[in-house]
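User: Carboxypeptidase, Camelina sativa:
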Amino acid sequence: MSLLQCLTVATALILFLQTLSLVSSTVLSRADRITRLPGQPQVGFQQYSGYVTVDEKKQRALFYYLAEAETKPISKPLVLWLNGGPGCSSVGVGAFSENGPFRPKGSVLVKNQHSWNQEANMLYLETPVGVGFSYATESSSYEGVNDKITAKDNLVFLQKWFLKFPQYLNRSLFITGESYAGHYVPQLAQLMIQYNKQHNLFNLKGIAIGNPVMEFSTDFNSRAEYFWSHGLISDPTYKMFTSYCNYSRYVSEYYRGTVSSMCTKVMSQVSIETSRFVDKYDVTLDVCIPSVLSQSKRVNPQPQEMGETVDVCVEDETVNYLNRRDVQKALHARLVGTRKWSVCSNVLDYEVLDVEVPTINIVGTLVKAGVPVLVYSGDQDSVIPLTGSRTLVKRLAEELGLRTTVPYRVWFAGQQVGGWTQVYGNILAFATVRGAAHEVPFSQPARALVLFKAFLGGLPLPDEF
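Assistant: Predicted structure for Carboxypeptidase:
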């Protein structure tokens, strides 16, 4: 056989193996296809959900839900969404309560008119193991989980998920999330960039994080000024809250089980004045808040003796829906080691002190690597206030030598002001969402969708209506 014939045979073999791999992947993804969710309205897009095993030896598996774009999914980007906690569900919170295609209402699902899958293929990941439907067969896998383990698992998940869905391999990929995802998202993006140096697998085009924890003391200590400026605490209490025991000191002591008498006194007074009848995640809201908003409770610890809990509605639509057997069957989901699906994990033992490790420096490395970054803030959130996030973004821009390319100004959603924004070097952006709570897409869905669309397109937020 001649050299030319050998090359021809080799090429044919390679094409055959590639085709075989594609067929195998199609079979894998087809097994995860959702025929129809119980009670859902008729839609024209495909849905998938199931498991990706990130550790074969210990049988650690992460659960995902994919809602493909409503129109022309093949030409739309892939967006990974991560909720925070740490330990709260991206499916229950993100997909079914914030920016997914449906929201539970009684025994049925209603269409979310501002779903983000209008603009992208939305992939929701329940991470780390022990969260939502994600599981491990050994309970020891839920102990000592930290940011490093979570980031690595998320990377492995994506690597293996692309084997199921190879049609997304070269697609533009964005990572988004909120709250403690201010740790998850930058850490995962950093690993992806490092992995790409040798394998060039991920076509990462940007990250967006909402009301994120990025720098412990700045984020947490901005709460005192927020309380005071919104009339939630008095002048003397503001002075105590900034002089004798700031919030980062209190949280640090709380996590270590060593709350001082001074901090106890200060926090008791703050709690009395702010009132347990005001929701800290949306200080203007005067209606019942679904328990899905409890993802923030882990970055907002409150001793029980202070009487502070997250306001929870009597009926929680999402929890009821995802605990239905027919729903779990349709989702290809199963409960392992627990009898009930919950918004935030009851079995996960996460290293809470990781919250003190800054991620704003990782955000800086992403910007230097050419990855666009959007930090956005619901302006009614006092848990991770906009003032802290704005300070961190501005400081980072100065450290990187980025000049202002879009001066601080309003942006519009429809005929109303959607919020305010500032952009540095056309790569690092900050935006507020007017009237939004800690969970922006839940509280201001229309404005959140305008923000999301501009982010995906690399466009400035609208400066006119």
